[in-house]
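Input:
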Amino acid sequence: MKRSGILNAELAAVIAGIGHGQTILIADAGMPRPSDIAIVDLAVVLGCPSFIDVVSAIVRECSIEKYTIATELLGSDSEVLPQLRACLEDTAEEAVSHTDLKELSKGALVFVRTGEATPYANVLLTASVVF
Amino acid sequence: MKRSGILNAELAAVIAGIGHGQTILIADAGMPRPSDIAIVDLAVVLGCPSFIDVVSAIVRECSIEKYTIATELLGSDSEVLPQLRACLEDTAEEAVSHTDLKELSKGALVFVRTGEATPYANVLLTASVVF
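Output:
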């Protein structure tokens, strides 16, 4: 079996093939999913797996140049924002309205659903290149 | 969104449709997957989600009359066996060789892969009826 990193076969395939500027949407359990893009549904039950566990796994395997969150997350007092920033330190942060984030998600290469039950725990990751 | 229970859309569909005597195989991250059955790949990275978290979620939603494990698990000192028995108390336990469990998995309605990294953390659940 694979020695380390992401084990989910579909997600591993997407990350292996992602190009510069393409995006991945990592979502809480309730974010609406665009109908025309690939979905990797990792949600088991509410809270499992957590948003940050999935973000961490993806960021360790895929180089990111920018991440986009909802402005509504900036105003929340959940642990998600500091955890996300710790995960993506030295990466440019951008905030748009939750409505705009939903629009942006339609252009993502893949929509990754977690079991997270924290409002606005969604992030659009923009891939960079490693050379 | 769904109020409670299993959120994974494919897994929820399988459980909603399962009939008496049909089986579900819940596996660690390394169990070989038969090629002709449905796969729900929940594995994120090693250890996430855990075997027992996924078993618990499925057992809460689906009535089970028997569970089958590998005899090799009986001889291990991992936490998996007592956790599994606690999860499935009052349900008949059956043990077969790991080789036989792999054969039995070919007849499962679905193969659910977790991120579990404990040897022999695999179980075949046989569905009962609720009436």
